[in-house]
Design goal:
globular; 85% helix; mainly alpha; 162 residues
Length: 162
């Protein structure tokens, strides 16, 4: 099918374009003035989840392709450096999770945010462990978990009284 060919081409190539889109969206998210949302409240309520979801998809795609490329280089070509990169990247993401979990607790002083984060992270890890997706890997899984933990931190710091 033509759509399979196009999808495979986009997923396996265009790394620079995906990275540029991710960095562009990230930069754009920091340049939005707060007063913008005062005037366009309803539009921002609708657009912001779409914006966050698109950034999340691009980030996960980059992690997925990196992990697949690095694991292929490690397992099939015997380049041990790429195995080291996989482990270090995953450990970085797990450190990120612990750091933002501690910040979330310190910011909110409630267990609700922490338990929500633990629930979502356990769900993500469990789905990966069950191998519902045969190509799932710990680097991509730890990036999912990092994003959910960071979003819990943002929620806690945005609403410190709750």
């Amino acid at each position: 099918m033509m759509s399979d060919h196009v999808s495979r081409f986009i997923n396996r190539n265009l790394w620079l374009l995906k990275l540029a889109v991710l960095l562009g969206l990230l930069y754009f998210s920091f340049t939005i003035d707060s007063s913008f949302f005062d005037y366009f409240y309803m539009e921002s309520v609708i657009i912001s989840p779409v914006f966050i979801f698109s950034m999340f998809l691009v980030m996960v795609e980059v992690y997925y392709v990196w992990a697949k490329h690095w694991s292929t280089r490690f397992f099939e070509h015997g380049q041990k450096y790429f195995g080291f990169l996989l482990v270090v990247s995953t450990l970085f993401n797990l450190t990120w999770i612990i750091y933002y979990s501690m910040l979330t607790y310190l910011q909110s002083c409630t267990w609700g945010y922490i338990l929500s984060s633990v629930f979502f992270n356990s769900l993500i890890f469990g789905l990966t462990y069950l191998k519902l997706n045969e190509e799932a890997n710990m680097l991509t899984t730890s990036s999912y978990m990092g994003v959910t933990t960071y979003m819990m931190y943002v929620a806690a710091s945005s609403n410190p009284s709750s």
